[in-house]
Design brief:
Elements: H1 2-108, E1 113-115, E2 143-149, E3 155-164, E4 173-175, E5 181-183, E6 188-193, E7 205-212, E8 218-226, E9 230-238, H2 241-249
Length: 255
């Protein structure tokens, strides 16, 4: 009986040992497989990390290349701006040269018509202008004003008017009917203004002369006349387009 009991106990002990060994084996098997899976996952993570590092490196290289491109583009833009500034400067210099050339040409062909202002009076009724003369009255109501073009170019479409200082308002302003008189450089002429009331050699007046240069620019000469002093306050200036249009409407100058 005791032998049988001992044998059964040993049997169950052996069975338990085998069961424990089987469980341990199974546990080790699962642990080994988990370890393998962990190693594979770690390897995959390592590969992904390496790929991420490679992508970061490539991104940094692309950023570097982009920075180089931007830098080159900025340099190109700066060079383009410098080229534009240089071209603008050259254009301004060219325009300045053109303006200077135009001014030189205008000055070389600019007429300057002024009244003759010395004190020799030509013979009465003479239509020939003497070398030296002042305004004179050859007949009643007629005022003759010698003028001279002292400029370098011809004076075209010469017109003249006088404003008598002592006359009544309705009789003060009178224009000469010159029919487009042209006066060459260095040339002289007598402007005859008629239908004046109470005009004499002692009359005070303001003289206006309008004329054009070869470029059709209009000029005005203005001067006051005092018998005791001669011409005073002589000015020569260009006529604005607005004023020229007004003079054309008044039929005072030729279009």
């Amino acid at each position: 009986m005791l032998l049988t009991t001992a044998t059964a106990a040993e049997t169950w002990t052996a069975i338990g040992t085998l069961a424990l060994a089987a469980v341990t084996f199974i546990s080790l098997l699962f642990g080994w497989r988990a370890l393998k899976d962990g190693q594979k996952q770690a390897q995959r993570n390592q590969e992904q990390l390496e790929q991420g590092e490679q992508a970061i490196s490539q991104g940094q290289e692309r950023l570097t290349q982009l920075g180089t491109v931007i830098s080159q583009g900025q340099e190109g833009l700066d060079q383009a701006r410098q080229s534009i500034d240089l071209a603008r400067e050259q254009l301004e210099k060219s325009q300045l040269a053109v303006d200077l050339s135009r001014k030189e040409i205008e000055e070389a062909h600019r007429p300057i018509v002024i009244p003759v202002g010395d004190r020799h009076t030509p013979e009465a009724n003479s239509q020939e202008l003497q070398s030296n003369s002042l305004p004179y009255v050859p007949d009643d109501g007629v005022l003759c004003i010698p003028v001279e073009n002292v400029g370098a170019g011809p004076a075209l479409n010469l017109r003249a008017s006088v404003v008598l200082t002592a006359a009544s308002p309705e009789d003060r302003t009178h224009a000469a009917n010159l029919r487009g008189l042209h006066l060459a450089a260095g040339g002289r002429a007598v402007i005859e203004i008629t239908n004046l009331l109470n005009v004499s050699d002692d009359s005070l007046f303001t003289l206006q002369l309008f004329f054009e240069d070869v470029a059709s620019k209009m000029w005005e000469t203005r001067a006051g006349y005092l018998p005791s002093l001669g011409y005073t306050e002589l000015t020569i200036e260009t006529v604005s387009a607005a004023r020229r249009g007004l003079l054309i409407k008044q039929n005072f100058v030729l279009e």
